Amino acid sequence: MSISVLTIVRNRAGHLAQLIEGLRRSDHYPDELIIVDMNSSPPVGIDDLPFANKLIRLSTGGLPLAAARNAAAAVATGDHLLFLDVDCIAMRGLVGAMTRTLSQQDALICAEVRYLGPDDARSNWEEADLLVHARGHPVRDFPVSGLRQVDNPGLFWSLVFGIRRSRFDALGGFDQRFTGYGAEDTDFGFGAERAGLPLLFMGGPGAFHQHHPGFDPPLQHFHDIVRNAQVFYEKWGVWPMYGWLSAFAKAGLIEWDEKLLAIKRAPTGEEIQAAMVD
């Protein structure tokens, strides 16, 4: 069975280079790499690779995560799809492990992500050294090896996941009513559960998450998060991104209860800057 690796990028050329380097070192090459460039400035490029590759450019504004992932899947030719966020580096055994697992399991499969510090994976890195320094996720508990079924679709994450191409198509891909950042992946997990597709956490080889500055809460995506939360609530009857919405409400940015979500004011530039964490 063939497998396509799909990634989407905007202004993360350094991260993309490390993602590609990880795939170069794979024990099992992907049959192809699909990259969707979401209007990077300057546009990203691809050097010669030891596997097939395609580069698609989207000219839409903002951060169209759902549409970009769908665009990547639309041109992929693999029987299996491995979505890999641009700030992730696949471990040497990830592509092969995901290929074997999807051949055996018709499921939505998340691989473990381990987080790197700011000085890790900058140059001349070795996987063994990264394993020493990387840390696991505080909430998502992965088995050491094998598979564990997870009954909470809210724990699906889009950083590193695999799915059979036929299943992705049957689910209709990511719902493009979610525009910009937030909730499009939680919606995908809910949709998979409704379709009877199990969510499995896969132990063993996963990926490393490259360090980059972030925001807590992500006030730089405030309007996207509020809009997408409303779309999610109208679709599923529950609120997603509960922690972020709680932080927005505590800061006086939104009015929010069991049924109502309304913007009171936008965050100031100073508030956004203060939320940055390195």
Can you walk through the features of this model?
This protein has 278 residues and is α/β, with parallel strands linked by helices. The protein contains nine helices and 13 strands. Strand 1 (3-9), helix 1 and strand 2 (32-38) form a beta-alpha-beta unit. The protein starts with a strand and ends with a strand. The model has no long low-confidence stretch (mean pLDDT 93).
Secondary-structure map:
Elements: E1 3-9, H1 13-24, E2 32-38, E3 52-58, H2 65-75, E4 80-84, E5 88-90, H3 94-104, E6 108-115, H4 127-133, E7 147-150, E8 160-164, H5 165-171, H6 184-194, E9 199-209, E10 214-215, H7 222-236, H8 242-250, E11 254-256, E12 261-263, H9 269-274, E13 276-277
Parallel strand pairs: 1-2, 1-4, 2-3, 6-9
Antiparallel strand pairs: 4-8, 5-9, 6-8, 7-9, 10-13, 11-12
